[in-house]
Every structure is written in C-alpha cells, then in structure tokens.
Amino acid sequence: MTKSETSVSPLTLLRAELTRRGLDGFVVPRSDEHQGEYVPPSAQRLAWLTGFTGSAGMAVALIERAAFFTDGRYTLQAKTEVDARAFELLHLVDAPPAGWIEANLPSGARLGYDPWLHTPDGVTALKEAAERAGGTLVPVDGNPIDAVWRDRPEPPTEPIVAHPLEFAGQDARDKRRAIAETLAKNHLDAAVLTAPDSIAWLLNVRGGDLPYTPLPLSFAVIGADGHVAWFVDRRKIGPGLGEHLGNDVTVEPPSGFGPGLDALGEKRVRVDFGTAPAWVYDRLTASGAKIVRGSDPCQLPKACKNEAELDGMRGAHRRDGAAVVGFLSWLAERGPKGGLGEIAAADKLESFRAKGEHFRGLSFPTIAGAGPHGAIVHYRASRQSERTIEPGQLFLLDSGAQYADGTTDITRTIAIGAVGAEERHRFTLVLKGHIALARARFPTGTTGSQLDALARQPLWAEGLDYDHGTGHGVGSFLGVHEGPQRISKVASAQALLPGMIVSDEPGYYKTGAYGIRIENLIAVRTDGAAENSDKPWLAFETLTLVPIDLALVESASLSAAEIDWLNAYHARVRSEITPLVDAATAQWLEDATRPI
Amino acid sequence: MTKSETSVSPLTLLRAELTRRGLDGFVVPRSDEHQGEYVPPSAQRLAWLTGFTGSAGMAVALIERAAFFTDGRYTLQAKTEVDARAFELLHLVDAPPAGWIEANLPSGARLGYDPWLHTPDGVTALKEAAERAGGTLVPVDGNPIDAVWRDRPEPPTEPIVAHPLEFAGQDARDKRRAIAETLAKNHLDAAVLTAPDSIAWLLNVRGGDLPYTPLPLSFAVIGADGHVAWFVDRRKIGPGLGEHLGNDVTVEPPSGFGPGLDALGEKRVRVDFGTAPAWVYDRLTASGAKIVRGSDPCQLPKACKNEAELDGMRGAHRRDGAAVVGFLSWLAERGPKGGLGEIAAADKLESFRAKGEHFRGLSFPTIAGAGPHGAIVHYRASRQSERTIEPGQLFLLDSGAQYADGTTDITRTIAIGAVGAEERHRFTLVLKGHIALARARFPTGTTGSQLDALARQPLWAEGLDYDHGTGHGVGSFLGVHEGPQRISKVASAQALLPGMIVSDEPGYYKTGAYGIRIENLIAVRTDGAAENSDKPWLAFETLTLVPIDLALVESASLSAAEIDWLNAYHARVRSEITPLVDAATAQWLEDATRPI
Q1: Which ranges in B83-193 belong to alpha helices (H)?
Q2: What DSSP letter does each residue of B24-91 carry, written as one string?
Q3: With a cut of 0.85, is the ipTM above it?
Q4: Which of A457, A492, A529 sits opposite B454 (nearest CB)?
Q5: Which residues pair with A151 in a beta bridge?
C-alpha cells in the first residue's frame, strides 16, 4: 500500500477544519503576505496541501471537489506532483479560478479566504465569482491550514545586516527624504510598504529569510515627514543595526502593524493594490483612512540604479563572467565525453562562482537542461529526473548569483559536439532577436512592451515564437526578478528609464527535443539626444560577459550589423575576462570569442 | 478698429449667461453628444467661443480668466485662431485642463459642464479637479452657449439610406442576433449605443449628418433579445427605410431616449465609458439600472471586416489607386514647372477621384503640404496660407475618399524635381519602417502596440522619430478613423484580428523644412499556422495601390528583403492599375514602378 492510501491527506484535514469553522470551501494561493516570488517554508501552504512545488499556482478546496490551477510553465510538473484524483488540474489563465468557482461553488455556500494572502484586486475577483455562484466570500481570522498543518516550520528569523553605502550608492536618509517628497507632492500623508525588497532598498539592509534573495520579511509605514515605522521581528536585528538605521526609523514588533495602521485614520495613505494584502486595505478602511491606490513609492527609485549600483553590477558581472567562462572551458573538454549529469554540471558551475569575491549564493535554482529538458522553460533537475549531457545535444544553462555588489542572471545554450542544422538555424533566429533588442536605440518614454517584438520578429517571420517574456527587471543585490520594468508582450505604461536593468532572453523550445535561450542582462543608458531636443535618447549597455556559442551561429543568416555586434561583444568579453582566468581558460576564451 | 474691439465677444456673452445662471465657469469641449471626430456645425461650440477649428481642444471659461487647450498637432494653429489676450493657450496633455482648474478655480466656485458632452470618466477628472480647488462641478440643464449663440445652425437632418447587403456582407438581422448573443453571454439585458458608426453598422444604414463620414446622428438601445429601439429624427427617414429595418427595430423620436433609459431600471446595461455621454450614465443611475462598464458591443465586430467588406475595400482601392496614379502622372509633368498651388493640387486630385464608380466624397480634408507645410502633420491649406509647389521641394499629399464599397486613406511624398540627400536618406528610413510593418508576420494575440516599434526602429537608430501613431483603424464606408485597432506607442490590450484594417504611416517631419509620410492601408489576414498548433499566424495584406516615389529611395540603404518587397509591391500596382488608366498614364506608371 502506498502512503496516500493509509494516511489522512492534507485535503481531508483541511476539509474537516473548514467544516468545523462553518465554511464550505477555501482558496489557497501560492503567495505569502508579501506577494513575492519566493515564500519561506512556513508559508508554503499550497505545497503542503497539493504537493506542488512550482512558483505559480492556486487551489480551491470545496467540500465535495477541489481544483488546482497553474500556468503553462508548470502544467507538466503539476501532473507529476498533484494528485489528479483529488484535484481537477486546470490552467491558471485559460480556465481561471474565478470561472471554476462560479461554476462549482454551491448556491448559498461560504467560501473562505485568508486576507493576508490576497491583494484587494484578487479578493474582488474571487468575491464576484462567489456571488455569481450565489455564494459569499468570507475572510478567515487565522489560516485554517495553519490549524491542521502538523510540523509547520517556524517563520524565518535570519539576521539582518546593513547594506554598505559603497554598494548602495545612496544614504538611507536621502532615500527616505526623497520618498517623503514624493508623498508630499502627491498630497499623501503616508505609504504602507509590504514588499520586502522595497523595505530592504529603503533602509539599506539585507537579510536571509528567503532562498536566493537577500531579504528580511517585514512591513513598514513611511510618513510624509520621512519617518519609518518598521514592523519586524526584533530577533533578526543584530547589535550594530540600530545605529545604521538612525533616529528616524522606529523598530516595532510585527504585532504593532495593525495598531500602526489604525493610527492612520483620517490620513491619505498610499497602498499598492498589486502587492499589499487585502488585510491592510480592510484595516485601513476600518480605521477611516483615505486609501489612495498607487504604486509602492520605492519601486521606481529602486529600479533606477545609481552609478554606484551600476558599477557594482559591472564588477559582479566580470567575476560572474570569469566563473561561467571557467565552467564553459571545463565543459568544452568534459561535455563531449558524455555521461555528465545535469546536477553535477550545475554544482560544478556553482563551485566556479563560489570562488568569486563578494559571492553570497545563487540568485535562483540553476536550470541545467540537457537535450529535451532544455525545452522545459522552468526545468529543475532532480536526482530522479535528471539526464546526462550527451554529444549531439544542446545544453541549456540558465543560472545566476548574488554578490554583495550585484545580482547576475545568464543563459547560454551550448552545442555538445556537432548538432543538427535545424538547431543551428533556430539558435541563429534567437540570436538575431537578442541582438535586435541589445542594439535598440529609442526615445525617452519608450516602454518594454514596445520593444518586445524586436526580439521576436526573426522567429515570428518563420512562424515560431516563445511563450515567455523577453526580459524581466533585475535588482541590485536584491531579487533577480523585480518590477516595474520588463520587456514583454503584456501592455505596460512604464517607460524604460536610465539605470533600469532588464534581461534580454529570447528563446525557442521544441517540446521533447531541445531548448534554446540566450540571456544577457542589459542596463538602460542615455545615448545622445533627439534631433532639436534635449530629451535624451536611450540605448542598452550589456552587462553580461560570456561568449555566445559560435558553433551554433549560422553566419550566413546574420546581417553585417548583427555580425559587427557579435564580434564587438566577443572582443569586449575577451578583453575584460582574460585577465581574470587561468592560461588554459584564456586560450579557450580566445577561440570562443574569435571574430566571424 | 478691428471687429473684436467693436462687437461683444462670444466669451463675454457666455460669461453673462453663466452669471445669470449662478455659475462661475463652464467647460467647453470640442465634442458633441457622440464623442466622434467630426461634429456638425450646430455643435461647434468650441469654434464659436474661441475661433479654433482643429479637431482636438477644450476651453475652460471662468469669470475672470479663461484657458484654451489643444495638443501638439494644433499648437501653431491655435496661436493664429485663438485670441491669446482672452485665452491662456496651453497644451492638452502637458498642462491638462484638470491641473489648470485646480490652480485657477476660486474656492467655493461653481464650475458648470454639459453632461451630454463629456464621458463619465471625463466628468470624474473634472470633478476631482474642481474639488481639489475647493469648488464644485455642476451639470447644466441646457447648454449655456446655445442660449447666447445667435444664428446657431440647426442640427442636421440629412436623409438616411440603406447600406446594401452586397457591400455590408451581413444582414442586419444577423448582426443584431450576434450582438444579442454577446449580451446574453455577458449576463447583460441591454447595451446603450451612442456611437453613430456603431449604429450605422448594426442597422446597415448610412447617412449624411457629418462631413466626410456617411453617418446619421442618433442613439439606440439594443436588448438581449436583439430588439433595437432607435432614437432618431423621423425627418431623416425616407419611405423605403422602414422595410429595410424590419419589425425588430422600433423608430422613436430623440426625445424618447430619456424615457427609454428610464425603462431599463433594474436591468444590467452595458455602457461604453469611452464614448457615452455622462448624461446617459446619470439617467441610468437614476432609473436604478445596474450599469456594467464595457466596450460598445458593435465596435469589435464592426472592426473585423467580412469578406464582402474586404472585397469592397479592394475594389475601392483599385479605383482610388487609378485616380491617384492619374493625378501623380499629371503632377509629374505639371509640378516641376512650379507655381502650382496646394489647393489647386488637392482639387485636381479630387477631380480624378470623382470620376470613380461609387464615389461618395472625400473621407477627410486633403492635406496637401508643399515644402515646409509638409512638416505640419495636420496641415490644411487655406487661401491665405497656401504655398505653391516648387522644384527642389518635397510635396506631402495625404488624402482619401469614401466609396459605397469602401473607404481609402493614402499618403505619398513626392520629390518635385531634384531634392537633397538628407531628404532622400530620411525618406528611405521612413520607407524601411513602412516596409517592416507591412512585412510583419506575428502570432494571434499580438497587439498594435507591440508592432509599433517595428516601424520606428530605423528612425530611432538615427535619433529620429515622429510624434504621431503609426496606424489608425479604418472603417468600411464608415469613419476613416475607427477603433479599437491601431498601431501605436500607447499601451493597448486589443489584439489585431483577421479583417481589421489599419493604416501603416510612419513619417518624419523637419519643422520649417519638409515633411515625409508614406501611408498605405493594410488588412490583417491569416497566414499559415504556428508550428505544432492550430492558432493562425497573421500578416498584413496591403490594400493601397499607388507607387512610392523611387526618386526618393536611397537603394543602398535597403536590405535585399526590403528591395524585394518594394519591387513586388510595384509589380502588383502596375498589374492592377494599368488596365484602369489611359495610355499616357500607363506609360508613366510603368516607369514609376520599375524594379530597382
């Protein structure tokens, strides 16, 4: 007998608890209170309930039936991880939870949700769905999963440290003053901060509550006078930090957050409806505060890196480039012999990185996909699933690291031995798209949605595409994914601004066969001015410094301008990385960066 | 003494009327009750008040001061037309009315607005501005301008005629049934229709209440049962039309519109907040209707032309092409002699078009700009301002016509004699952008905002741009501008769908020197499928059939693919237009379409 037939399933435990509370269902999102990409083990309620370990999903558990939703990236993974007898498996976008609730919630039923784990807009969508079904959506006081989850891990309490001015480039007092001015200009008395990276940026602190991202989890309120009330577990705060924070930051326990919001009654308070929990909205509403919808005021200044942060990113990318080049040189020898496991390859790469100055860990779990595994966009090798890298295959390697002075994220697709003409042709189409974005020059005011098609057009012309964004924002020793900047099909009104960093990562994926992706990080820089205008023209500076595999480049398909770009990029990689690697690696690098 | 010093100005008349009504100010938009591009003379209140004749503007008249707002296209025109001593002249986007009201409306003041002439969202913006100033925004009952506007023209009552099935391609009953299904699927009981082109499309009728656009002005309500209540002046309805409309369309007088809305109490009613007057919103709210915000349900099916409409467009473009080719052949002889006036040129072009079958008039006032006038994007020649076309200049000609089977809009830029290298180079950049969009292939779901940059990139790369959209939607014997489709920087979630028609019109403008624009209409068509998918791939079919001036093409700057496109386009123009023109014109055409 297997375990699932003998033990009581989490779904059964949850249903009993719902019945005890007079609820007919419960919505279980993947997020925690901060709506971030990573959640600590204590908040992995969706994984506890369904077994699903991906980064996007939601479950709705009713008494008689249940459904699990994820997006295209994780459909295959959900099939192996989630019990299809217990959960109907559905597509988060094509068959979203609201529609399923409307169709399946019994009339008169009470559907529960945890107001800490949904944004106000998310609650509205669920509420309308429940009401269309003739039911009601009911907030819970205390998550019912926590009541029945035996051995639930404790919330993390990793120490918080100061992020030095050398790398931050701006004193925290100056940041607070600038945010306070923004609030005052918008006739606001305060803003609630619930995004951990915003708080880390604002206070120039870093922590360790989450994997891959140096963030402490906490909440804060900043007033139009620049004062910050920081609601954070005191156990995380070491002896020297108080001095770093200064007098204008008051440290209060997390339990003080509610009373802190109550004190904002009658005030005009900005809340970011994209990231704040509905709980904040409800509490402020009850306090009589005038809630003003608007983006987290730290988001945009955090996204526009200052010169010290850009210099830090450049240094981190040189060290990271040397590490990846070291690995690729090793792989050029080891790969064609066959039998190298995906996990062993990822570990080897990490060992090269770990030697670098300021290394603080990986910025996300390495995606090392051999052959057909490369076609799984968010693939993560496990001991059970991993393949070995064999001659004749493509090997897709997407990885990155956190350094105290910057965050990296790079994808290279490598030919192991000789590969087919189709692979080379499509790699070249992806490369043309990558170059088109990297070379783009554009006026102030241009958004990432406007530029996205430049990277897709070479593939589109041959009826091909990739089902992910072209670029995501990247933080400065913060999240490897950050907003509001991105290069994406999704309509956006956010202009690309000088200092923003995004990835440039078009790809192509042939299910069951191979995957291709070429990713560099690029920074928005001013580059001249418009004719008869003082409005700056913008262009990208490429930060990543690692050769692109010339064995995969069909040079006859490249234009002269594209060949010039590739040769200039490789010349720069060679000149910046050669001094950082040993003689054998330098020799490999010289060949890998030869002009074509 | 000039006239303005002896007679009482409209602004003075309005202020007296405002005072009589206890108002401290009044907002005067350019729009009528239908928010369309053209307004009948009876609704040209902004022109009466300020003298401004452009298509985008607003005035705010307070007792002590007044302001006039227009956008970048009309800034120069406003300076000549509007009295700067009476009105502060401001930029509609950079210094919008709301900000001016906030800064200038006295505390406690009552600012009036006509709820027929603003959308609900427009009213919200004005209301917030008035309240931030400490005043209130007050709806008027009857427009105060109408009370003091002596000799105000009567509203138009041009006859309404049936639009034959041969050109409409779908019976009006089938259209009503499809819209009714859309409403039912969205749990709606009815939709209010206030856009004249939606009503004309739905009922397969055309009229003549507006210049350049074959529209009757009216209102309608369509129910989820497919029944239409049409609120329209009976004097416009000829004897045969009742039969064409059938039993499911009830004709009611315009005065019945209010009671018609009252009858929707308790119903779920869709209102398009982008085009409906606030008056409709207010009346429905008072009636107890549940207002559901959503797009006009006719908008999308109207935008996706059926095969009969596309065939009509193709036929109209052949006749229009023959007319423009006839004109260009004539201009090739006449132009280099010098002294040809802009108005004479436009009239000559119209005379060629008027000979075409199904010709019903121009689709907008011809823009015929010689030399520096070409740089004025929405230039309209007047007897006072016109220039003559001289050798060495560029001549920009943007024009179009209404035919019973289709609507055209074309811009050509023509070298008169020999022109400079800069003009040729920049014309070639614009051509590269035009070709990039025309050649684009893209997956289902792609929006016009995603494609816009393809047309700009060649200019952007040299620090140049144009300050208008790349393409607007075009109707089928309806408005030459229609939504929701467009090719624009402005973020949009509207995918391009098969049958949609847009213009492809990148440009470049050097103030005081010359203007360049190349415009064809293009239709979205399916073009194969994605790899391993049944989702159609899309591409554009070019409808416009007129040569692009080869004297302006710097062929060394074109790629092989661009030259192939241009030669194939010209071969098609030659083969389709030659049979429709006389021998001399055919000879000119042969040379104008020679391969390069």
Answers
A1: 97-104, 120-132, 144-148, 165-168, 172-185
A2: SEEEEES--TT--S---GGG-HHHHHH---SSS-EEEEESS-EEEEE-GGGHHHHHHHS-TTTSEEEE
A3: yes
A4: A457
A5: none
H helices present in A292-341, as ranges = 299-303, 307-334
Size of interface A-B (CB pairs under 8 A): 79
Residue A6: how many CB atoms within 10 A of its CB? 7
Cβ contact, residue pair A442, B460, below 8 Å: yes
Backbone angles phi, psi at A128, to 5 degrees: -60, -40
Is B118 in contact with B29 (CB distance < 8 Å)?
yes
Divide the 596 residues of chain A into consecutive groups of 10 and give the mean pLDDT of each group.
63 97 97 94 97 94 96 86 96 91 96 97 94 95 96 96 97 97 95 98 97 97 97 93 94 97 95 95 96 96 98 98 98 97 98 97 97 90 92 98 98 97 98 98 96 97 94 98 94 94 97 96 91 85 98 96 98 98 98 98
d(CA B75, CA B90): 8
Give the distance between the most distant pair of CA atoms in chain B: 78
Q: CA nearest A346: which of A333, A362, A357? A: A362
Contact call for residues A61 and A24 (beta carbons, < 8 A): no
> H/E element holding A495?
none
Integer Cα distance of B555 and B428 in angstroms: 8
d(CA B230, CA B232): 6
| Residues in chain B, overall count | 596
**Which among B457, B464, B531 is the nearest to A464, CB-wise?**
B531
User: Among A356, A322, A318, A316, which residue's Cα sits nearest to residue A480?
Assistant: A316
Start-to-end CA distance of chain A, whole Å, equals 62
Chain A residues touching B493 at Cβ < 8 A: 491
Min Cα distance A377 → chain B (Å) is 17
Tokens at B525, concatenated: 């068509």
8 Å CB contact between A73 and A56: yes
pTM of the model: 0.92
Residue A394 in tokens: 């493509």
CA neighbor of B476 nearest in space, from B464, B463, B485: B485
Amino acid at A560: A
Interface of A with B (CB under 8 A): 132, 439-443, 445-447, 449-454, 456-457, 460-461, 463-465, 489, 491-493, 511, 528-532, 537, 559
pLDDT 10s digits, B427-462 = 999 999 999 999 999 999 999 999 999 999 999 999
In DSSP notation, B399-468 reads E-EEETTEE--EEEEEE-SS--HHHHHHHHHHHHHHHHHHH-EEETT-BHHHHHHHHHHHHHTTT---SS
Calculate the alpha carbon distances from B587 to A360, B184, B549, B593 in Å. 75, 58, 15, 10
- What does each C-alpha distance from B537 to A423, A463, B529, B533 come to in angstroms? 22, 7, 5, 10
